[in-house]
Amino acid sequence: MSMQAEPLTRRGKKSTGEGPAGPENKEVGQDRKQKTQGRAAALLIIPSMIVLGIVIVYPVIDAIIMSLQKDAGLDPVTGSFVAGGFAGFYNYVHWILQQCNTPSGQASCPAGTLGSQFWSATGTTFLLTVITVALETVIGFWMAIIMSRTFRGRSALRAAVLVPWAIPTAVTAKLWFFIFAFDGIANTLFHTSILWTGSEVPARAAIIIADVWKTTPFMALLILAGLQMIPDQVYEAAKVDGATAWQRFTQITLPLVKPALMVAILFRTLDALRMYDLPAIMTAGANGTTTLSILVVNQIRIGFNSAAALSTITFLIIFIVAFIFVRFLGANAVESATNSGKVK
Amino acid sequence: MSVATLDPTTAKTVARRRERWASSRTYISAAIILIWCLLPFYWMLVTAFRDVGYTFDPTPWFTHVTWDNFTTVFSEKLGNHFAQNLLNSLIVSSVTTAVALLFGVFAAYALARLEFRFKFLVLGFVLGASMFPGVAIVTPLFQLFTNIGWMGTYQALIIPNISFVLPLTVYTLTSFFREMPWELEEAARIDGCTQGEAFRKVIMPLAAPAVFTTAILAFIGAWNEFLIASQLSSEATKTVTVAIAYFAGSQPHQEPYTAVMAAGTVVTIPLVILVLVFQRKIVAGLTAGAVK
Fold first, then answer.
1. C-alpha span between A320 and A130 (Å, rounded)
2. N or C, fewer C-beta in 10 Å, chain B?
3. Which helix (DSSP H) or strand (DSSP E) does residue A102 occupy?
């Protein structure tokens, strides 16, 4: 890759071989080049970094600062209004240990308060994430394999899989809410009388189905792109050697598609952990479908500062998951972006 | 039956039959995928055109066809302002996309084309930025915009939208740019072009499709956004996704399904058309960087 970036004159010089001062000259040249390009890069990149700093870093730092402040409101112990002030890690304790201020001091948050919902919201978020990502990966892989085959109508199929992705999630939520209405087509077709959004298991199932419908085709496209990087010759050679279809899948397809697959799973997992639209619109967080994002939003109008603590906890969770993926599972999104040219 | 006893004709027949079976399985699988992807969408269309009195009619094709639901969607008698909502979404999405491209193209060029220290750090930062949950910035921005009087303004929606659209733009364009034939730029410079001329005459035409594709992805991302808009918009700046989520029906406790399906159709059809027309570009953009 770097060879292609070299000016032609430099390449011409190199082809003549190195003179007595070759290594030294090369080193000086490289250093000068990097310095020059470094300046150009700075000019080109700094504006974007500033914008991201303004729209992400500043709010996040502000959220962390807010999370260390008390919320304004009535002090339940004294009954008087408190304007705020430094709170240390009270807001974090509030969520993680589910401690609320009560007239008799700090105690477990009463059932039904937002403070009592942190761990169930965390559990719900991870449950929905694991199930949807697993289903989307497996089904997506199957879809990708079908789409990678040559047959009439293949282009129509590829066009069709873009439809669920293109539909806004809010519309998807309303569409599936309608499908899962008591009198809706799901109950009608399957001759059931399920209150889909009315109790825990069906409500979660409804959200999972809607999410899988919307996102699986996208996973399929990502995996398909990975499959298309595998040369046909590898499969031909394996066939000649007598490998079965299953052997070709487990020993050729899976290993070679793994880098692309891991990146796709990483991005999808991070998205799922942030899930807000579907449960907010389909079930309003009722019946065991409150995710961490929903809990944060519900808290915003009750108290900025404790909401800020919860949103900080939420993104820490997401970064921990991302770190685990990159560090231990080898999902290297940065490398896949920077090395894309080397494969060609 | 041993293999040796098969005559060539029979062996050929068996092979052809197996091939036909494999082909049939592929077509059946393709049909299942098509149904999975399109049937719910089709059901939205059927319902959008069906008279409200037959909301739950299970007939699988268009019946009791009417435009009434669309009239209802655009009517303001029930407190909906859908036309304004559409305009709001168009404004927010267009400005967000324009800003993201303006900054993103330059950053992507540097990341794809130039060698410098901290390149991995910058790219990691961009990717990290794309991982932030919306709630992480909505919470502090809610307070900030309230304090400075920006709540319910367009900039209150555009600024947080940039937080996920700009990283997407940089990441996608970096991958596209990395695969461009930069030798042509070198050749142009050797032919006497200045760097600026080489950029305008050679690189820009080559980069245009990538930038256009990225613009489509950015626009769709901003258009589909819901969390930020639901918390930081007002009646005046409400976007279509929020409008659809909280659409008012004629009965207080009855979901106006047909009207919502009609609104969903209005919002989705342009996107689906856009996506189908630029299908190849969009697939290339969606998969850029995630593969290889």
1. 15
2. N
3. strand A99-102
Burial status of residue A106 (CB atoms within 10 A of its CB: 0-12, 13-18, 19 or more): middle
- Comparing CB atoms, the residue among A62, A168, A226 nearest residue B224 is A168
Q: Nearest Cβ partner of B141 from A59, A173, A276?
A: A59
Residue B88 sits at the chain A interface (C-beta within 8 Å): no
Instruction: Give dist(CA B5, CA B10) in Å, integer.
Output: 10
B131: nearest CB among A66, A174, A270: A270
Q: What is the SS3 assignment for A107?
A: strand
Tokens of A109: 């948050």
Count interface pairs A-B at CB distance under 8 A.
Answer: 336
Contact between A204 and A128 under an 8 Å Cβ cutoff? The reply is yes
Q: Do B137 and A178 touch (CB under 8 A)?
A: no
Question: And the tokens for B214?
Answer: 């990225």
ipTM value, please give it: 0.86
Other Cβ atoms closer than 10 A to A258: 14
Residue of B nearest to A295 (CA): B135
Q: What is the pLDDT of residue B282?
A: 86
Best A163, A291, A319 member to test B by mutation, with max B CBs in 10 Å, is A163
Closest CA to B84 of B92, B245, A166, B216: B92
- Residue among A151, A222, A307 minimizing CB distance to B290: A222
Helices A200-227 and A154-166, axial angle in degrees (round to 10): 130
Check CB contact under 8 Å for B122 and A49.
Answer: yes
Report yes or no: B190 at the A interface, CB cutoff 8 Å. yes
Instruction: Choose from B59, B132, B169, B185 for mutation: most chain A CBs within 10 A.
Output: B132
Structure tokens, B232: 């930081």
Say yes or no: B186 contacts chain A, CB-CB below 8 A. yes
The pLDDT tens digits for B78-120 are 788 999 999 999 999 999 999 999 999 989 988 888 888 888 8
Q: How confident is the model at residue A29 (pLDDT cuts 50, 70, 90)?
A: low
Which residue of chain B is at minimal alpha-carbon distance from A139? B33
Radius of gyration for chain B, computed over Cα atoms and rounded to the nearest angstrom: 26
> Quick count: other Cβ atoms within 10 Å of Cβ A91?
24
CB B238 within 8 Å of CB B229: yes
Helix H or strand E segment including B177: helix B154-178
Q: Which is more confident, B113 or B265?
A: B265
